[in-house]
Design goal:
about 475 residues; alpha/beta; six-stranded mixed sheet; about 30% helix; elongated
Length: about 475
Amino acid sequence: MRKKQKPDFSKPKVIENENAVKEKVYDSEKTYFNLPLIVIAGRPNVGKSTLFNRFMKKRLAITDPTPGVTRDPVEGTAFICGKPVHLMDTGGYKLDREIGTMEAVMDKLVSEKSVEMLKRADRILLLLEAGEITGEDEEFIALLRPYWDKVVAAVNKTEGGRNEENAWNYLKYGFKDLILISAEHGDRINELSEALVKDLDFSMVTEGEEDRPIRIAILGKPNTGKSTLSNRLTHTEASIVSDYAGTTRDVVEGSFRYNGKDIQILDTAGIRRKAKVTENIEYYSVNRAIKSLDNCDIVFLMIDVNEGLAEQDKKICSLAFERGRGIIFVMNKWDIYKDKEEKKFKDIVENIRIMFGHMNFAPILQLSAKNGEGLKVLMDTALELYGQLTKKIDTSTLNTALNDWLFKYPPPASRTAHFKIRYITQKSVNPVNFLIFATRPEVVPDTYLAYLKNRVREDLGFDKIPVQLEMKASRVKWENRERQ
């Protein structure tokens, strides 16, 4: 008789079911299409941006105790319960406005933009705050009635059971379920996550097989037309457009397709001189704008032709140049100079070349973002720059060219500064970086390095982008290095 084997409780029991559907594992680095849209909405200062950042697992939206910090919708791909969704943080719906002020105009624009996003949403996350119910809460809940079947209601700031008795008062408005959470501390976020993705249709979600989109950051001083250009390119009204300087605070992303290429636009806050940045909110906005240089491929530096160049433009260029980004000087509001276009443009080009001596390669283009004039040339140039940023030259071709350059202009020889250039290789693309090996790199004159850099740029097709050149010590010739 077989001895009965004792069960092993040291390992978890796994029940295999052939009919079980395996959940798809999603890669955060991939691009996904046809994602369900989840919009976070509510009145100002209830914690929408904090919750958005928690779902995104990074700080994308600016958070600050000041009501009304978020203006434009901030969006991105988040993974909720392992499912990819398009998540959007909207500006707060504000009822109390000081009529006649610029801030009141902005509040109205922000509220209209928030309501507009509700129509597009597959799911609306209504975020409320534990405490006294306000008129803004009641009016916004009334606005949501046509979309009631898409609403998931959550009450924020209830960490540790705080204000729970007040939070349950929201049930009188007819919510089927009410989830009490803390966006800051993470209380009951898992329960909220399950409610958000429940019954959403993921059947149309597809993974992007193409290369990642070309990322273009629009930078410049306030009121130069950045948001107008972003909206024009994306054929949307994603960015709020106003004559009020400092309208854009967060980095607003938009996407479109041009000549078979996916493009992602980053509309940023206007960058002013440090001495003029007085609010904490504006400080964070400017930091986010500058941070966009780390995530983009190309910079559109917007310049108002009425105001011309500023020291801040020089700072932006310097930061972009250091990171090896493609840069296009975009002279906006050009439609006002129709009669004296040629002379005006010549003067501007001359001023830019004087002010940005190390940026003589960067294209300078005319544009009217308001009228849409010059967009084709701008985007064709952007694609050309991206082609150069991602170009890879094989080592054999590089060294054939290097031998020709050394023959035409041999390195300067002296007893104290004698050196030999051995070989060259391309270290990276986007940013484009080359590595030159020499016997004594420390004595190679800057003038000779400049000569080699110019040859790389002009002879190898990198004439419109920054090129970085590094030196490294080596006594081995390129053709002999495999023998060692």
